[in-house]
Inverse folding.
């Protein structure tokens, strides 16, 4: 089951390890390609899909992950949590110079509680299968303990997702560096990844990222 809306103050909780790891990897000014010049980085960014194209690619993946978990495992109520897992973005930099390219993380998704420990293997298999079809070829455990786990994936553009289970369940994503078609201002808003159309790809089909 999924729902949107803001997280009430009474239900706020500490940030999950996976989300902290993603932010630490990015830092405030994300370093995309530190070994190349600003001009070279800009040329590479121009050759990539725009940020809008990539968000339109990643958000259906998040919806499909949650929808498949609902259909095949069930038992949790997933929702967007802007108060503890807010949307945000940061400029990318190289050799100390800030570029026009940015990284972006949509509002995070969470559920109170977690799946039964006996289902964790099946849960991770779903996340791995869906992520693989959306171009996240590098996937594996960051944390794997009896009481909690973090499973992460990374694609060719440097985007990362993190799926956490423990006291609560959390799914977050951070893009790689991309140029915006229309760069957002401070008042930029974007709907929750759960608020888009229902995912339609069938299991086993490929949903390749924009070239």
């Amino acid at each position: 089951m999924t729902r949107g809306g803001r997280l009430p103050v009474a239900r706020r909780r500490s940030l999950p390890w996976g989300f902290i790891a993603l932010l630490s990897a990015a830092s405030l000014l994300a370093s995309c390609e530190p070994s190349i010049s600003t001009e070279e980085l800009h040329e590479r960014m121009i050759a990539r899909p725009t940020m809008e194209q990539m968000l339109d690619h990643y958000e259906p993946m998040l919806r499909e992950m949650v929808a498949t978990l609902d259909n095949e495992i069930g038992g949790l109520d997933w929702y967007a949590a802007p108060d503890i897992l807010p949307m945000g973005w940061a400029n990318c930099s190289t050799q100390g110079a800030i570029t026009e390219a940015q990284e972006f993380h949509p509002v995070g998704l969470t559920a109170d509680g977690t799946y039964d420990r006996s289902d964790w293997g099946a849960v991770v298999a779903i996340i791995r299968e869906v992520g693989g079809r959306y171009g996240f070829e590098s996937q594996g455990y960051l944390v794997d303990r009896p009481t909690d786990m973090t499973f992460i994936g990374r694609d060719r553009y440097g985007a990362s997702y993190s799926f956490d289970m423990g006291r609560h369940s959390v799914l977050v994503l951070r893009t790689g560096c991309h140029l915006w078609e229309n760069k957002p201002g401070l008042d930029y808003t974007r709907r929750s990844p759960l608020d888009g159309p229902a995912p339609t790809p069938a299991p086993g089909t490929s949903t390749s990222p924009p070239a």
Q: What stands out?
A: Residues 16-195 form a domain with the TBP-like fold (CATH 3.30.2030.20).
